[in-house]
Amino acid sequence: MKQKIAIITPVPAMIESVIENSMIRKAVNNGILDVHIVNPRDFTKGSYRQIDDTPFGGGPGMVMMAEPLFKAIDFVIEKFSGEDGMRILYPSPQGIPWSQDTATENKDIEKIVIICGHYKGVDQRVIDKYVTHEYSMGDFVLSCGEIPAMMIVDSIVRLLPGVLNDINSSKTDTFSSKLLDSPHYTQPREINGLQVPEILLSGNHAKIKSWKKKVQLETTKLKRPDIWKKYLNNKSELKDE
Ligand SMILES: C[S@@+](CC[C@H](N)C(=O)[O-])C[C@H]1O[C@@H](n2cnc3c(N)ncnc32)[C@H](O)[C@@H]1O
Questions:
Q1: CATH code, domain with 201
Q2: What separation in Å is there between the alpha carbon of 127 and the centre of ligand 1?
Q3: How many domains does the chain have?
């Protein structure tokens, strides 16, 4: 399956610059992924190409209008030959947390549309009519949806076979292995008196593997007690089965 992703954005240059300078370009060049950038301003009337207006009921800020977004989404649905196998994502601080698990789940979705919000966000009727999944990048507010959209795409794409030089690299990353990753070192062996741990130079692969696991356990317990707790719970559930 070749994954297709459409990003609906009034600022295509933001998306293009990330694509050009990231793994996403490699995925597209290798025929693993199709990316389409759709500008809602192309679906407006008038020379001002208006996509935002003042909120009903008053209050500060502008709201992205429903009509240009309806038309842009319908355009993508037609381009992707229908809604079968499609998810329409809206990055929003009100969504469920984006995580390694949601990235892994979305890598198997054939057609993904991502709507980038601006200003106070999008007219609620866009969410009610089209959005299948709302995802938050964390408990903070960004000024636009392009950065979350690229976080979503990058975290999915690096899990697709043929993108990373070695797919096993993503399998040993933090979260994929259910623990934090172990520390990494490269040349030189010594810098400013700081040494590479002796065990990594030993050539003994079994010992290196068990050292890495030990450090993963220690750092997870220390740095992320929440992940450590989950890890222990999963382990005891597996034992009970
Ligand atoms: C200024 S924000 C709007 C925030 C909205 N008024 C609220 O308080 O829920 C503009 C856009 O940035 C994006 N955004 C901001 N913070 C985000 C987050 N934590 N996760 C995902 N998207 C976010 C969304 O697409 C949003 O529509």
A1: 1.10.1270.20
A2: 13
A3: 2
Sign of CA dihedral 185, 138, 117, 110: positive
Pocket of ligand 1 (CB under 6 A): 91-94, 116-118, 120-121, 136-138, 140-145, 148
Low-confidence winner among 1-10, 44-53, 139-148, 175-184 (lowest mean pLDDT): 175-184
Verify that 80 and 195 share a domain, yes or no. no
**Interval between CA 137 and ligand 1 midpoint (Å):** 9
26-37: average pLDDT: 96
45 falls within a domain: yes
Q: pTM here?
A: 0.93
The atom number, within ligand 1, closest to the CA of 115 reads 25
Q: Report pLDDT for 177.
A: 77
- Same structural domain, 193 and 146: no
Strands 63-64 and 52-53: antiparallel
CA of residue 120 to ligand 1 center, whole Å: 8
